């Protein structure tokens, strides 16, 4: 549950993953991939 995670991080910032780990995870997401997901969703809506 993301709310429990957020509260835990507020209470104990040291429990957060390392900056390197966070950067690696963030690198998995791109605007191009997001745009492709949105375009696919609109195509499905328009076909139905």
Give descriptors for this structure:
single chain; 3 helices; 48 residues; mainly alpha
Alpha carbon gyration radius: 17 Å
* Termini Cα gap: 33 Å
Query: How would you sum up the global shape?
Result: elongated
For the largest beta-sheet, the strand count, sense and barrel status come to: none
Number of domains: 1
Nearest-integer average pLDDT: 96
Q: How much helix is in the residues? A: over 70%
> Regions with pLDDT < 50 over 5+ consecutive residues?
none
Structural class: mainly alpha
**Record field, number of beta strands:** 0
List SSEs in N-to-C order: HHH
Strand content: under 5%
Number of distinct helices: 3
Q: Can you describe this structure?
A:
The chain is mainly α. It has one domain (2-47). The chain contains three helices and no strands. The chain has helices spanning 2-11, 19-26, 31-47.
